[in-house]
Structure formats: structure tokens, C-alpha cells
Amino acid sequence: MQETTRIFGIRAVIEAIESGESIDKIFIQKGLSGSLFHELNRHLKSGNYNISYVPVEKLNKLSKGNHQGVVANISPVSYISLEKLVEQANHSSTPPTFLLLDGLTDVRNFGAIIRTAECCGVSGIIIPEKGSAPINADTVKTSAGAVFKVPICKVNHILDAVYHLQTYDISVVAATEKTDDVIYDLDLKKPVAIVMGNEAKGVSNSILKSVNHKAKLPMLGSIASLNVSVACGAFLYEVVRQRL
User: What is the sign, positive or negative, of the torsion defined by CA atoms of 215, 221, 225, 230?
Assistant: First the structure.
């Protein structure tokens, strides 16, 4: 399986889109124009791509070649659809566990979470199409190769995934300090989905209003919160403990 590939040039990116490559992010020079760029733009409007408009200096750092104002990161993994992910998990002999990452941005946290998820038998990880940490070489390394073993799904909005999972009677639990309930008091033996939030902001309010349960970890020290990958590990291993 390939590591993250960075391609540059408008034509190269168009060909990657047309061939169905999994594109993590596209960097486009601010103010770019021309007929070839308009052709690229038509392709971009037909899909939901993670695009950043950046100054040319940023592109020059990303690529040493003639980038023509466009650079793209190709993901080293192929993503699975939410529908297929749920269908596969429901055919498993054990209750499925899903992990939803709401705006996680640090690639090393992402990699560490994927590694823990694989160790805990997580059925799949769900991330948003935009605003999420990419799967790049650092993610692959930190995950210790687990990124190639756990199905990963990209959705337009995490909230849509919450609703979809709930239609299958999958209980959705958000990890948040904005509750009096601790994770150890919940019944996690049935199908469950755990939502972990952004490193700084936590789980977004719209999701907190829509989940089945909110839960936290007891904090006995003076520091108010754990690193998100550590907290995620504690949540997932409580699922494992209850099911053993």
C-alpha cells in the first residue's frame, strides 16, 4: 500500500479526479485563472473536496516542480461508504463499535487513535470530508500500520452519520465534560458509536444535542482534560471490558 503521494500541476490533479483517486486535500493558488483551471473547477464542483486557497509561497514549499498553482495530496488508503461500513459491521458475529471523529486536526492524534481502534476491534472510523486531519505519512507511522486495517469512512457531516447510525439502533455516545454521567455507568454491550471531538473545542454542540448519551471520564487531578487520543483509548477499552 502506498504512502501519501503529493501531485502537482492542474492536469495531473484533473487526471487523479477522473481516475477516482482518494484525494485528501487540494491546495489552489489564490486568484488562479485560465482555461485549464476552469476545467479543474468544473471537476471540483461535481464532488465534495477539501480545498484550501493559499498564496503561491505555500505551494512553492509543497512542491519543487512546476505546480501551475495547484497541489494535491492523494490518500494512502481507500475510503468506504457509510452504508457499506454499517452493512459489513451488522454482519459481524459481535456487536459493532464505531468511532466518529468530530473535527480532529492533529495527524499524530489521529494515527494514535487509529492504532487504539484497531487494538479494540473497532468496526470502522468515521471522519468529516472537510476540517479533519489528513491521512499522511505521519498518520501512517503513528498508527503503526493500523490505518490499513481499520475501515475509514468520510462523510459530508458527522451529524448526518449520527442520524444514520441511530436508524440502525446504534447508540451514539459523545465524550464530553459537559455532563454528570461517567462512561463506566453506561451499558456498552450493545452496538455503540463513540464520538470524540476537536482537540480544543471538543464535540460540537449540534452533535451533543443529537446523541443518545453524553459521558465523561472522572478527573482526579488538577488538569481539566486529557489528550484526545488518551481519552479515546479509555472510552474504547471500557467497551472492550464490558464485552469480555
Answer: negative
